[in-house]
Amino acid sequence: MSLSRRALLSLLPAATVAGQAALAGPANAAPGSARWGGRPASAAAADHARLLANTVATFAGTPESNARPEAAGKLAAIADTARTWLAAWDAAGAGELFAGLPLGDNDAHLNASYQHLYEIALATVAPGDAAPDLRGNAAVRRRVVEGLAWLHERYYGDQSAGYYGNWFHWEIGISTHTSRTLVLLAEELAAQAPELTATYVASMDAYLRNGENGDVDLDSRFHTGANLADITVNRVLQGAVTGDEARIVKAVADLTTVFHPIDPYDLRHGVTDGFYADGSFLQHASVAYTGSYGTSLLGRVTQAFSVLAGTEYLARAELVEVVRGWLVNSFAPVVFEGWMMELVRGRAVSRTTSGYAAVAAVVEAAVDLSAAVEHPERARELRGYVRYLRETSPVAPDPVGFVSPVSVARYADILADDSAPPADLGPAARNVAFNAMDRTVHRRPGYAFALARSSRRISRYEYMSGENLMPWFQGDGAHYLYLSGQDQTRAFGVDYFTAVPPHRLAGVTAPVEERATVPELYGQPFYDNPEAGFTASSEAQNTYVYFPCSTNAHSGGASLDGFGAVGLVLADDVAWRDKAAGLLPEDFVAYRNASGVRSWFLLDEEVVLLAAGVRDPAGRAVTTTVDARIAAPEADLAVTGRLADGRPWPGPGAQQRLSWLRFADRDANTAVGYAFLEPTEARVDLATVTRNRRLVRTANPDTPVTKRVFTLGTELPAGAREPGTLACALVPGADEERLAAYAGGPLTVLANTERLQAVAHRELGLVGVNSFAPGRHRAGGVEVEGPASVLVTRAPDGTVSVAVADPTTERDRIAVTLRGRALRPVELDGGVLVRRVPGGTRLTVTTRRAYGASLTARLAPGDR
């Protein structure tokens, strides 16, 4: 479910909307000085008290939830964490609140110190008998108040000395921990340090430097998406603890903007961060980020529902439906058997936290939403999804990682409830085109294929703060093939990026060269050149270092009845373009890409990979990797195959003309086949490598990783005169007999050039076409004018289905002609016109403002 801006405003209670215009004072006024016009003070006070109680219940649990045996692990973890930091407090040295966290010039240590104060305070208010030494311990609570005062006096209160390092710590991180602590210890603060709460709120306002007058600025690039949700929920808590009605009203109104779907043709405040109509999610303006910032936003919003429950500030039910739509359309497609897919995790792919742990926030949100959704069937579907994630994940979600003990109790109830059968939130066979973030997910029983691309609109990768150090090709057609029943920590995650060379990631076409990481180039985690506009969080740093976009417009494709066609033009990024144009400083380093066109046709039993025009303008060697897989060093692997002349494949080594190859991991009971659809010289490598996880993230533990690494691909030699091509079907689970049958099987490559790539599948009655150049293109009875992506299926009864998409997002209309007998329209999307032409049927598809979305038509034989 998505809502317009007008509809979202209608969901705010009338008093809230009116209150914004009738506030008696500024949004950050002192406690008690601003009151909501027309609302009795007693009603406001009641809502503030409810907010405080809801917040404690959300983070510390309730007597009912905490009495449940299933919550014992969570409560023990809260208590153990508090005891750990109390011991570290006792052992602290000079300039430390906690041992090992020296303060004064390290913002991460200051943020962590506030976090640990919150964690100690949390243990003192959590109901139950899990921590009798901490619950209600007045001495510990007084000590936390003293810690707050000490930190403010020495390391936080002086605005001239603060705000060094990462802006996030000052505007969000510290404020999050502090705001929650102020709520948890409201009584102690009132009695022990009555001025400290107001002092902290004023300081937090002053550190909101990317805001406006100490408040949110919806025009700021820092106050968007997940960041905006963090800031506004913090301000709701601050308003509740100070009795500042104006702050709460304004914060809730700002928060509701995150529910508004992003319309790229009608941006609000210039913001591109958030959820799109096709399920995409962006953060940092151009980074596909559902699996990290998206989960953060999801968690914050569901927490906000809990905190605001029962107050007059928010019409919750309708917005809960919006968030349920996020789960269905944005999160469920990118979670495979409990694993968050790499292609939507940004720089987090380099962390040791696994994709299973990343899904914990999705599970908790589904748990809590199932209790908030008013429609019984939709609530049952959410409960079924929670059970599905538990049932299919090789690593079960750990409720100890949930934010709320209440969620832990609900989770236990759902797992014990057989009335909601385990089920995904989408069909087992589906093709999801997230064209607004240059991602495609293709799912079938037994596997999921996830494809990452980039363009002028979407970043090629995200690097930041020493994370994801070797990201250069992650948006150049990198793919991830997830096989059912496999523990994905053994196939992907941080060890995949550690063990596989960056230019040999699965699916990537890349030049062969040595590249240096940002810290290696500049001696620190960013390029520092203030005179040229490069500081740690400047727009120039974002544009050229942290998450540069590519320079191509063509990236996207069509989706039809669970099938997909995707095209990509490889190009340089904006850093290389602008460095070559003399627009960047002399000491700034940029790298040049290879060039070519790529296509992926996503079918039932196979994914067809095509490449054409592969070359390097600089004359370097270029690799196109069909697949790359990792396994344990002792894994029982088997690689078999046949050469094009019928002889058995002799083993790894030099490039050989392959007919097919099969990689099997017998320990994991998985296999992948590769059927070459055109004569191709390919190279197979199978090696045992040992590399350190710090290669991909400076903060990772100093841990060596040993893996067997399998790669299959083609190599274009340096200085090659003729461009390279590739045509291969990737076949999950295939056996040798099935792979051998592709030599005369149903798949045919109709075209594989720089202008046109197309395939036909006889058994599916399908033709897929990707065109990359102006002019008319013909393949398989389909004519296309200009760059486009087209899928056509023909049913046995003569019914024809067509999907057309504009992968450039820049064309107003696309013309497609189907040669053969005349067809009449049966069902058409808006903007699709059909007419007979000599020798066939012509479709004129208006793609203007469709932003890459597929438009479809159902046609039938005859004149009616």
From TrEMBL:
The chain positions of domain Polysaccharide lyase family 8 C-terminal read 748-812
**Source species, please?**
Streptomyces triticirhizae
Please give the biological process terms from Gene Ontology that the record holds. carbohydrate metabolic process
Q: Which Pfam families match?
A: Lyase_8, Lyase_8_C, Lyase_8_N
Family the entry assigns: Belongs to the polysaccharide lyase 8 family.
Protein keywords = Lyase, Signal
GO-annotated molecular function = carbohydrate binding; carbon-oxygen lyase activity, acting on polysaccharides
Instruction: State the superkingdom.
Output: Bacteria
Protein name per Swiss-Prot or TrEMBL: Silent information regulator protein Sir2
Would you indicate the residue range of the signal peptide? 1-29
Residues of the Polysaccharide lyase family 8 central domain: 432-734
Catalytic residues, per the record, are: 284, 293, 347
Q: Which residues form the Polysaccharide lyase 8 N-terminal alpha-helical domain?
A: 75-378
Q: Looking at the UniProt record for this protein, which Gene Ontology cellular component terms does it annotate, in alphabetical order? A: extracellular region
